[in-house]
Structures are given as structure tokens and as C-alpha cells.
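I hope you will forgive my troubling you with a question about protein structure. I set the record out below, with my sincere thanks for your time.
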Amino acid sequence: MASKAVSLPSARCGRDFIARHGETVFNAAKRLQGDAPHTPLTRAGFAQADEMGRALRIELGARPALTLWASPTGRALQTLSVIAEHLELDWHDAHTDPRLVEIGMGGWGGRYYADVVAEAGPVIDPASGLLRCAPDGEHYPAIAARVSGWLRDTASDAGDRLVIMHGISSRVMRGVMTGAASVPGFDAPALPGLPQGSVTVIEGGRERVVHRGTGHAPA
């Protein structure tokens, strides 16, 4: 399939802090998580959320003027609750949007990586580190389209904002926001992956890592 260009949303005034949620019970068990609505954080995941909160407190100070956004999944909202406490912000003021969820893994969702690999071969592309699409799962151009739609629809957000997302969907959105080239074989932009509990900031199409998390998970 030919690569399709992703139209970049209009530039927004303000910085975007993009965070990957902390480790979950699915991550620890080495299960494919995908767009599962609620897979709770582990103790390590809560510790990673604490680290992000401390890093953002150093970066932004107390009670920053910050619009809060999150994927509606439980793990993203749990992560946000810890960060919001560090920043002395009200978690209840957060906005959610289903376009921020993780890649849909279809029939592979919830299964052990090892079982899927034994049945269908490698799940992670060695060149890019991206997850392969499940036969009935979501494809990368669809992810790029939904996150681009969210960016366009929220372009009027004033000032800085914090967005709690997932490994794959955040890689694609970061790619869209920085004008990255499409990854060969995936037909969508994606920046390199970062560990769970990481935070980057994007301003004017440029990205900087604010905090590199201590988590570990594929993709």
C-alpha cells in the first residue's frame, strides 16, 4: 500500500507535554494490552507516575496553568491522578478523548506475547520497534488519522497542556506533531519509543525529553 501523507494540524500556541502511562498488570505479565479499557497500574507503575510528577513539578512549578488531557483508559487516568497531585491540580478538571487510546490489537488483545509469537511470528518489528498490526486490528494510518483529528479539534486550547497516552499512539502523535516521515512498512509517522513513565515536550514542532521513565515494555 502506498504511503499517505498526514496533514499537519495548525500550529498551536503553547507547549504539549506528552506522557506515557506507568507499568500495568498486563505489561508485567507480558500480555498484549492494546486498547483494553482498564488494566491497573502495578506498584512500579505508580512509582513511575510519581517520578513523572516530580519531574513536571520541577519543570512547571506548583499549580501551573496547564490543560489536562488523558486517554479514557484506567491506566492513563491513574497515572494522571498521581501527576496532578504533584502539580497541585484538580484531577477532576481533566478532559478525556477516545482518540487518545492505544492501538487496537483485535484478537491479539489480552493474549500473552509468547503465545501470539508462537502462532503468528514476531509481534514487534525489529527495525522500528513498532507493534505489528493484528489481522483484525487497527492499522497505523487509522491511528495517525484519529490523533490528527484530535489535534485539529483541540488546537484552540490555550497555553500549555499535559496529555497522558500510550506507547504506540503517543509515538504516532509525536510523529505527526513534529512532521516526521512515515515509517517504512507502516504508512504513518512515528518517533522512537520511550520507556513507560516518560514525558516529552513538543513546542513549535520540536521535541525534548523532560523525563525518561524507568519502565520497560515493548513498543
Summary: The first helix runs from residue 25 to 29. The chain has a mean pLDDT of 93.
